[in-house]
Specification:
The complex is a heterotrimer of chains A (about 425), B (about 180) and C (about 300). Chain A is mainly alpha-helical and about 425 residues long. Chain A is built from 20 helices and no strands. Chain A is globular and about 70 Å long. By secondary structure, chain B is mainly α. Chain B has one domain (about 1-185). By secondary structure, chain C is an alpha/beta fold. Chain C contains eleven helices and ten strands. In chain C, strands 1, 2, 3, 4, 5, 6, 7, 8, 9 and 10 form a ten-stranded mixed sheet that branches. The longest helix of chain C has about 35 residues, at about 225-260. The chains are: A mainly alpha (about 425), B mainly alpha (about 180), C alpha/beta (about 300). Chains in contact: A-B, A-C, B-C. The interface of A and C includes residues 233, 238 and 295 of A. Bound molecules: sodium ion (2 copies). Chain B: It is a multi-pass membrane protein.
Chain lengths: ~425, ~180, ~300
């Protein structure tokens, strides 16, 4: 009952456009006041502060900073050229390039919207020029961008790892196979679509062109190698990997490409500070709501009520998937993780679901949530670039959402999809 | 009106500069920590100080986000509502935000007394009163930022502009501009 | 009317600390029956130990188990961060009666905290992936993860290691990828986090005994009736002997379990470590008021 009141209150506050972070904090504060008394309000500022001093989350500003450096130093454009040289010769090549670039990019800047804006503003006009269907152009840009959040490094996983206190590196490893399956799935759909609507190829494949593009992008390619190599090679932790990314991007962009424009960079970093703060305020106020929920024992009660109905992890996962898909329609990704994880985690551990496995499922649900209106910021950005209507685009986007859903089902019911590599390494 | 806008701009620039400096310092700390560990003498206060740096970045950054009205929200219901209802809901929502931070500022200040006894574990000379001052200070700043950005938000609300939509347009504009400058 | 006692710990329910806390809860409920309702939280649900201390003072948590962070409240508690000060659980019991419950409890009281009883987190040991540690020189250059603690890092520096802070959630992977070579913890923590699966050597160094103190906020404590205070104290003391026995049992159990799982176990050269620790003792005597006297008294108790 209390949980329903909490949800209704949150919903009401968000609906009248109170910032989500503040809405969460308000419900927490009112809950503490009513149920525990005014003297307990002294806990609130302590909890708020402690919520934000979560060491692994330092990766958020660092990755965003690295992404900003990459975007402003010409690294991104070179990656796009390289992928075009690699897969552009296939029928429907530009659509494939779109998928490929997203897999390389993999939500580096921390804001899915900024990433779609970065790749979309290059690729969508190009696709339009080559007479691709406008809605299709928006849809493939949007879906492949969402896929990126399950390919490491991923900020969604960093946030989940920090909140659920599971290893971020293991989450990264778990995302590799599902990410590749999803990428192949989207590429296959692109090919089918390209044959059906007779879409063009880019220039014929040329080894020379590939070589040139590769040379141009070589330094940019070294970047993921440095980050992931640093993490898996035991040089740095996942959090510090983000720091290394900043360092490498500075060297490559500033000393090798010499394309760092300090003015643009300052603006990008400011943007990064804001994105960090927006997420972190959510994290902090959610800790306040968590304070209230914990003392009311709500997560435990929820776990108990559901486990009296079923103890079967597969059934519980099905329930969780439905809940998350619904939530994903209305909540932004980060907000959904931050809000949901503390509430469902006792349930997840009680029925014996591996927290790494659940992290992947959660992340995939959020990826799908970015594609489902009404709240679908990634889709909205792609539509805005392509100047298409969101609902019409969604119709074209259905098969691609289908691909993502298929990956979700695979990951959910064949745990090895995500856990095989984790078990292999750890 | 013009004066408020000027104060808003100056406050925004100061907050920008301060938070960007915090981010750069945080990056530097992490890089130094990696370097020192590799060289064989780790910085022992690293994770405690870096976590607190993150908290400062978060709360002062939240002030910057407030003055730019960039916090995550759900504006489409309000911006599509009847103009009269829109005004009522707008005022209500502003009141809720300001009240929340008044409470945070008040209790955040009260609690500093309790913390005066404690210090950081890895740097005993740094008192928790100092590190945790960010809560009352940034709460007061949040209210100031909210008020300074109120006139602009009011104007947009009257015109029924959806701020989510605006943010997306801004992201695209930035990306396209970056692209042009790269091609030059 | 029924009184509510909010009791919280930072450790998990399976840890020795968690088992001890549950034992205490049982004891207390047995003594007080329907008079009180004990609301118990583990796994840091109400915050880590730092937050629990703050909440004890605010009166929003009534009882909490606090370990090494106590030395950031009152520096005298760093006595327990002196390597090889505590020789055995019997010695610990002596120190507890003569020093903790007398002197240290007094200093804590001045900082708003009431120490009720001393339980255990256990003797700490070193694990690593490079080599068995028998003398301090074996630690040379090893990156050993230590918790945020001024004294612990000083101790490992004195032995020639490179003490490295790291969030506990990253330690498992950190040990596996090699960001860090080793770590130090009581056996029940090592086993609980499955660290033995990613470590080759377990060296039974016993370098520090970490007690954990059942603590109340002074304000809240004074408000309880005499009857409740006595019940809490008695339950806590009964729990202490349970905890010490269980701790010793657990050490034996875990050493053999972990040895069976393939980790190489060895003893250390205690005297070599003691010899290498003098600088830590000197620093304690110098920095903590009355430090030398505390050391001397604690050492004397070992012979009794
Ligand atoms: Na990614
Ligand atoms: Na959605």
């Amino acid at each position: 009952m209390t949980l329903l009141i909490v949800i209704a209150a949150l919903f009401a506050l968000v609906l009248i456009n109170v910032p989500i972070a503040v809405a969460i904090g308000v419900v927490g504060v009112v809950g503490v006041y009513i149920n525990m008394g005014p003297e307990h309000l002294l806990n609130v500022p302590l909890t708020l502060f402690n919520g934000a001093t979560n060491f692994p989350l330092i990766a958020i500003p660092l990755f965003i900073f690295a992404g900003a450096l990459m975007n402003t130093s010409g690294i991104s454009t070179r990656l796009i050229n390289l992928v075009t040289a690699m897969v552009g010769f296939v029928r429907g090549g530009l659509a494939m390039v779109n998928v490929g670039v997203s897999m390389f990019f993999a939500e580096i800047s921390g804001s899915a919207v900024a990433d779609v804006a970065a790749t979309g503003s290059v690729l969508i006009p190009e696709m339009k020029r080559k007479h691709y269907n406008h809605e299709f152009s928006a849809a493939i840009t949007s879906s492949s961008a969402s896929l990126a959040i399950i390919i490491p490094p991923s900020l969604s996983m960093i946030i989940y790892g920090a909140i659920a206190e599971v290893s971020i590196v293991q989450l990264f490893v778990a995302g590799i196979i599902p990410g590749i399956i999803g990428g192949i799935g989207l590429a296959c759909f692109c090919y089918y679509y390209a044959v059906k609507y007779n879409l063009p190829r880019e220039e014929a494949f040329s080894l020379g062109r590939l070589g040139h593009a590769f040379k141009e992008a070589a330094w940019a390619l070294i970047l993921p190698v440095i980050i992931l190599g640093g993490i898996f090679g035991g040089f740095v932790t996942a959090t510090e990997g983000a720091g290394i990314a900043v360092f490498a991007a500075l060297i490559i962009g500033g000393l090798i490409y010499r394309e760092l424009n300090l003015k643009i960079l300052y603006r990008a970093v400011t943007e990064g500070v804001i994105q960090t703060a927006v997420v972190m305020l959510l994290v902090a106020t959610s800790a306040v709501l968590g304070l209230f929920l914990t003392e009311m024992q709500l997560p435990q009660q929820l776990a108990q009520e559901i486990t009296t109905i079923t103890q079967d992890p597969l059934a519980v996962l099905a329930l969780l998937n439905i809940l998350l898909l619904l939530l994903g329609m209305f909540l932004h990704g980060a907000a959904a993780i931050i809000l949901v994880v503390p509430i469902v985690m006792p349930l997840v551990t009680q029925v014996g679901i591996d927290p790494i496995h659940f992290g992947l499922i959660l992340t995939l649900n959020l990826a799908i949530g970015q594609q489902t209106p009404p709240v679908a910021s990634v889709l909205a950005t792609a539509c805005s670039i392509a100047k298409t209507d969101m609902w019409n685009t969604t119709k074209v986007n259905f098969p691609m959402i289908g691909v993502l859903l298929m990956v979700l089902l695979l990951v959910t019911y064949i745990p090895a999809t995500s856990l095989y590599l984790v078990d292999l390494f750890y | 009106m013009i004066r408020i806008e000027q104060i808003r701009l100056i406050t925004e620039k100061i907050l920008e500069f301060f938070t960007v400096t915090l981010l750069l310092s945080l990056t530097l700390i992490v890089l130094l920590a990696v370097a020192f560990r590799t060289l064989g003498s780790s910085i022992t206060w690293y994770d405690e100080v870096a976590s607190i740096g993150l908290a400062w970045l978060s709360f002062y950054g939240a002030n910057l986000a407030a003055i730019k009205r960039a916090h995550m929200g759900f504006p489409s219901f309000v911006s599509n509502a009847h103009p009269f209802i829109r005004i009522i809901l707008f005022i209500l929502s502003e009141l809720i935000v300001v009240s929340f931070f008044i409470i945070m500022a008040y209790y955040g200040y009260q609690v500093l007394d309790v913390l005066a006894w404690d210090s950081l574990v890895s740097l005993p000379q740094v008192s928790l009163t100092f590190t945790q001052s960010v809560i009352p200070v940034s709460s007061v700043l949040f209210i100031i930022c909210e008020l300074l950005s109120l006139p602009g938000a009011w104007k947009k609300m009257k015109q029924g502009i959806d701020s989510d939509h605006e943010a997306i347009e801004e992201a695209i504009r930035l990306a396209e501009q970056g692209l042009k400058e790269q091609r030059l | 009317s029924q009184e509510k006692i909010v009791f919280a710990i930072g450790g998990s329910s399976q840890s020795l600390q968690g088992q001890t806390a549950l034992e205490f809860k049982r004891n207390l409920e047995e003594k007080l029956g329907d008079q009180v309702q004990v609301e118990y939280y583990d796994s840091g649900q109400l915050g880590d130990e730092r937050q629990l201390i703050q909440r004890l003072r605010l009166g929003t948590v009534d009882l909490a188990a606090i370990s090494s962070i106590m030395s950031s409240v009152a520096p005298e508690f760093a006595l327990f961060d002196l390597p090889y000060l505590v020789e055995s659980r019997e010695h610990l019991k002596q120190i507890d009666d003569e020093i903790v419950m007398q002197d240290l409890a007094d200093t804590a009281e001045k900082k708003g905290l009431k120490i009720i009883s001393t339980w255990e987190n256990g003797f700490r040991h070193i694990t690593n992936n490079q080599r068995p540690i028998t003398t301090p020189s074996d630690l040379n250059g090893l990156r050993i993860r230590t918790p945020q603690s001024d004294w612990r890092t000083r101790m490992f520096s004195a032995w020639g290691a490179n003490p490295t802070p790291m969030a506990f959630s990253e330690v498992f992977v950190g040990l596996q990828t090699g960001v860090i070579d080793g770590q130090e913890n009581p056996l029940s923590n090592i086993y609980g986090a499955r660290l033995h699966e990613v470590q080759k050597y377990l060296s039974l160094s016993n370098h520090v005994y970490t007690p954990i103190w059942l603590t109340a906020g002074q304000g809240g404590w004074n408000q309880y009736s005499e009857n409740i205070r006595t019940a809490i104290s008695e339950a806590a003391i009964e729990t202490q002997s349970w905890a010490l026995t269980r701790g010793a049992e657990l050490d034996q159990e875990l050493i053999s379990t972990m040895r069976d799982s393939g980790i190489e176990v060895n003893e250390v050269d205690r005297d070599a470590f003691i010899k290498a620790s003098t600088s830590v003792y000197e620093a304690f005597a110098e920095q903590v008021e009355g430090g030398q006297a505390l050391i001397d008294r604690a050492m004397e108790l070992a012979d009794q």
